Amino acid sequence: MRHVGLFGGSFDPVHVGHLRAAIEVMEHLGLDELRFIPCAHSPGKPPPRASGRLRRDWLELAMGDRPGWILDDRELRREGVSHTVETLLGIREEEPESRLYWIVGSDAFSNLHQWREADRLGRLAHWIVLLRPGFPPVLPEEAPGWCRTGRTEDPARLRQDPAGDVLYLRVTALGISATAIRDRIRRGLALDYLVPDSLQDALARAACYDPP
Known about the structure:
The chain is α/β, with parallel strands linked by helices and 212 residues long. The chain has a single domain (3-122, 172-185, 193-209), classed as HUPs (Rossmann fold), CATH 3.40.50. 37% of the residues lie in helices and 16% in strands. It has ten helices and seven strands. The chain has a seven-stranded parallel sheet. Helix 1 (16-29) links the parallel strand 1 (3-9) and strand 2. The chain is globular and about 50 Å long.
């Protein structure tokens, strides 16, 4: 049985906070593979400033040839609003015997009740909630029941259950945001130690982040 991590997001742009979290999730859970899944357009949010093609190219540069890391661009190819349930159903069909682990920040997880078919999501994957500084995991009453009943602190349980477990994971707190990086790009400020060296030149040329 394969254990596959699924890391979705805008990645507008990808930065070392994303990459460090991916490393620590793989180590903590012993994953065989981790897929970065850039969205086309997250529901309820403005569209990403950078195009799907640019964000995909930047991810490829940032990922390099690290073993086990894969770029999955299905949401960009699907276009339109990206719904996690559609992505999980597609991957589940391709990987019927694999354990799937959807990786999400604690801020996004707190709004999971607003996602399409939120009740169904717990039947399709385990959920790894990254505890972000300043975003405590507060679940509203509207949250699907599995968000509470599936909570565990034991990574071994995720290997026993087919889906529906929720593991809160504290990763190295780097305090880096894509918003702040976009602002630095607009202002022509240095990006050292915020994004991989392989990405700096490409981001410095990114006119998509220029003031409107």
